[in-house]
Amino acid sequence: MRRFSEAMGTTISVVVFLLMFVVIALAALGRAESDGGMALLWVALLAYIGWQFVDALAGWAEAPSVGRLAAPFALGAVVLIGWQTIVTALDVPSVILPAPSQIAVTFAGNLRTLWADFVQTILKGAMSGYVVGCALAFGMAVLVDRYDFLRRGLLPVGNFMAALPIVGTAPILVMWFGFDWQSKAAVVVVMVFFPMLVNIVAGLADTTAMQRDLMRTYSASYWQTLITLRLPAALPFVFNGLKVSATLALIGAIVAEFFGSPTVGLGFRINASLGQLALDMVWSVIVVAALAGSLLYGFLTVLERWLTFWHPSQRR
């Protein structure tokens, strides 16, 4: 009975906060260009009610699975509505911060251009460099694990290379490999190689002495031990490196285009739009990059859950 009453209380809170949020948002949007103090009051009230709504939805005991799935989308909706309310109520110029509605219109009106930019930067530059860099890191990690002199000599150099700023290495690689996507792929290879290498080497070492002794008892060779014991144990580290490198790949490909590219690409579009003060187009490019990064990260998360179902981090 107590659990039922708590569930009903949470459900009522979700509905009440949702209705209050909608009413306050409509009222704030209806009072566009009001004085600054009143506008800030509306925004603060909207933020508080939106926070309470998302918090109640995340802890929805009546439907916990729905709450877990709906809470992130609800938070995103609250942020977008709050953003629209701030821009409208405070009359913020579009050259400073365009409204989400304006960004959506620009995004829908430039789908063909944004698709060409997506193909050039993400599919060609970022993904090709990501695949090559991760594959090279995996092969080198096996060699580092096999030969101790490589561990002592290469890993310190890797830490040094990983600390190099992209704004210093990207112009050099652009001059070496040209202005097309190949130079962006080279930048991505440099950015993802050493984070992946460090994660894979750490994962290959993540086995106990008892497990390794058991494999020796079975007269297993190095490669048999590597394939049947050490690589499966290293999978959580591998996926951690893959997810970190996915973000680095997108950043590297976009930033590299600032130092030279053909008249297509997400980085080129940001640079050109900033020169024209077209902030709505800049935000449209940001949306494309964010969607691409989220999809790649989500794919890696699902693949990790499928391959490492045995790991404690995946148990529910």
Determine Rg (CA atoms, Å).
25 Å
Structural class: mainly alpha
- Our measurement of the CA-to-CA distance between the termini, rounded to an integer number of angstroms, reads 26 Å
* DSSP summary: helix tally: 12
Point out poorly predicted stretches: none
CATH superfamily of the largest domain: MetI-like
CATH top level assignment of the largest domain: Mainly Alpha
Q: Beta-strand percentage?
A: under 5%
Number of domains: 2
Largest sheet: none
C-alpha geometry: flat
Structural overview:
The structure is a single chain. The protein has 316 residues and is an all-alpha fold. It folds into two domains: 91 residues; 208 residues, Orthogonal Bundle (MetI-like fold), CATH 1.10.3720. Helices cover 82% and strands 0% of the residues. It has twelve helices and no strands. Helix 5 packs antiparallel against helix 10, helix 8 runs antiparallel to helix 10 and helix 10 runs antiparallel to helix 12. The longest helix is centred in the middle third of the chain and has 36 residues. It is flat and about 75 Å long. The two termini are 26 Å apart.
Write a short abstract of this structure.
With 316 residues, the chain is an all-alpha fold. It has two domains: 2-92; 107-314, MetI-like fold (Orthogonal Bundle), CATH 1.10.3720.10.
Topology:
Layout: H1 2-30, H2 36-58, H3 64-89, H4 100-109, H5 111-146, H6 148-162, H7 166-177, H8 181-204, H9 209-217, H10 222-256, H11 266-275, H12 279-307
Keywords:
single chain; mainly alpha; 2 domains; 0% strand; flat
